[in-house]
């Protein structure tokens, strides 16, 4: 693939593949389908290989920041476009392309609407090839660059909760401000952030990650039966089905803009911080983020994100080793991974 004009069929593939690679986070399937289709209705969306750009060209990352379970979340088309315009207005360089922060049901298609409205292409290189909880994990290890200045613009919220703005400063500081904006907006904001060179994306991003999501989605959609869908996905990802059983002990609380909780499926325990973080059976660790831990409706095969799990639901749980995934360099950053531990009260590193 060098340049591909995206189609309605590709929207479905990207959203379902993204949902699976979301590993419990990354938004809702219905939301992703709506966003992808809306983007194509607005204009042409072109997905390009990273080698279509020069190494010194710059791309901007776009994302959604917030808690998928938040009831009052609202981000519209104009707000998404506003983030790109605000960033370009305040950033000294020139943006040549758009990239998404991660793969997920609603996040693989991040930037498609902005691309349709601005004419900028989307590069086939998400910041991360799976979903992750914190902004820093989708920031291409910019947190390790001494004296790095983060440029971010955000917008979201409805009515009296509508909020928008541009922020610059240290990556952690700006990330915390944006997360707080998402809370004030009702749970979610659209963000355009951290322009970087294409050379930097090649070194730290998940090159080929969008086409990988579409490949997984295509395998999923090609099957009719629920069990066949799960088997096809597991085979395509070189993972395994760990358990098929019923949910008990499901707990979820939304705090600080994140969904946090745990559940059991016939003797195995999963924890999540938006995304599934750990998988244990009889006290033995079977999977640890950034391994891909994902749940599916055992009957229909539909991917089930952490925020929509229900007690009594029959789920299939799969696990894919991180070695089989296209991942950002951040997924080897122990400092970032350790931030998970106090949240879920489990060892990650």
UniProtKB/TrEMBL annotation:
Transmembrane segments: none annotated. InterPro entries: S-Me-THD-like_C, S-Me-THD_C_sf, S-Me-THD_N, S-Me-THD_N_sf. Pfam families: S-Me-THD_C, S-Me-THD_N. Residues 11-144 form the S-Me-THD N-terminal domain. Residues 174-327 form the S-Me-THD-like C-terminal domain. Coiled coil: none annotated. This is DUF917 family protein.
């Amino acid at each position: 693939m060098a340049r591909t004009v995206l189609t309605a069929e590709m929207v479905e593939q990207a959203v379902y593949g993204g949902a699976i690679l979301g590993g419990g986070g990354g938004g809702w399937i219905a939301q992703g389908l709506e966003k992808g289709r809306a983007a194509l209705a607005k204009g042409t969306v072109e997905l390009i290989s990273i080698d279509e750009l020069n190494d010194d060209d710059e791309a901007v990352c776009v994302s959604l920041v917030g808690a998928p379970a938040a009831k009052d979340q609202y981000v519209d088309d104009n707000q998404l476009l506003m983030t790109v315009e605000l960033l370009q207005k305040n950033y000294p360089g020139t943006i040549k392309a758009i990239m998404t922060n991660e793969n997920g049901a609603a996040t693989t298609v991040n930037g498609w609407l902005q691309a349709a409205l601005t004419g900028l292409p989307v590069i086939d290189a998400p910041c991360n090839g799976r979903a992750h909880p914190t902004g820093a994990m989708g920031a291409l290890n910019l947190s390790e660059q001494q004296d790095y200045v983060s440029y971010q613009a955000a917008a979201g919220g409805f009515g009296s909760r509508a909020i928008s703005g541009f922020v610059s400063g240290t990556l952690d500081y700006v990330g915390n401000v944006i997360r707080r904006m998402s809370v004030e907006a009702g749970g979610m904001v659209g963000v355009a952030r951290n322009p970087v060179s294409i050379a930097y994306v090649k070194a730290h991003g998940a090159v080929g990650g969008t086409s990988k999501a579409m490949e997984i989605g295509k395998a999923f959609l090609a099957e009719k039966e629920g069990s066949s869908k799960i088997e096809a996905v597991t085979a395509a990802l070189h993972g395994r089905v760990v358990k098929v059983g019923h949910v008990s002990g499901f707990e979820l609380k939304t705090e600080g803009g994140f969904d946090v909780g745990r559940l059991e499926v016939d003797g195995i325990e999963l924890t999540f911080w938006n995304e599934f973080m750990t998988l244990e059976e009889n006290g033995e660790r079977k999977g640890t983020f950034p391994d891909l831990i994902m749940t599916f409706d055992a009957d229909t095969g539909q991917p089930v994100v952490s925020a929509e799990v229900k007690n009594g639901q029959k789920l299939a749980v799969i696990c894919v080793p991180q070695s089989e995934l296209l991942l950002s360099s951040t997924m080897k950053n122990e400092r970032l991974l350790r931030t998970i531990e106090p949240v879920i009260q489990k060892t990650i590193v």
